[in-house]
Amino acid sequence: MPRAKPVLLVLLALFARGGDAAQLTTNYKRVGKRVEFGGSWLIRETFDDGVDAARAAAWLQDPRRVLAAAWPAEHIRAANGGGGDVLAFALTQDPIDFAGLVHVDCVVDVDVAREPRGGVSLASRSVEAFATLRGKRRPVPMDFRLRGHLEGQPDAGGAAALVGSFEYSMSADLIGPLVFVPDRALRLAAAGVNRKLALGDRFADGVLAGVRADAPS
């Protein structure tokens, strides 16, 4: 049935930018018509020679710069909220057309806090998502949570390591024919989405590249 497209999986795919996530754990739960997907990533990457923990911590003190390691800078804007060492941002996800039938756009509000030892922690506050199907745009109710932290720590040989973790979960009611999709198929889909998401790799690669680009000449 060509129109039986999984809107929930489309929403999850909004966060996918390609790549294989290292040290990934996939979570999945289905209760009746409601399904929850999630994943968690552990990060430990060594910086280039000459980058010590102090320099890494200083680079990580800029929340917007850290977010830009994983999201396009033009998709990050300041939002209401925050205060003190906590800054609020709205992250616009790249729109997606799914099989020419469903268009989904989504904005996630997050709080980013500077950590006392250098680094940042991140937590989502809310998500606003819309799906356009057959020319009609409608809100898509869901529960979404994203949490994570990054910091620079001393590593062997005097260099520094980027250490952190991220986890997210997203849940929504199955709609239409999705109610009849076998549980195994949904579980495999969740694992595939997490591999594409590669949240840990996105942050690690972006931060390491950013520190390298800012190296003194």
UniProtKB/TrEMBL annotation:
<protein>
    <recommendedName>
        <fullName>Lipid/polyisoprenoid-binding YceI-like domain-containing protein</fullName>
    </recommendedName>
</protein>
<feature type="signal peptide">
    <location>
        <begin position="1"/>
        <end position="21"/>
    </location>
</feature>
<keyword id="KW-0732">Signal</keyword>
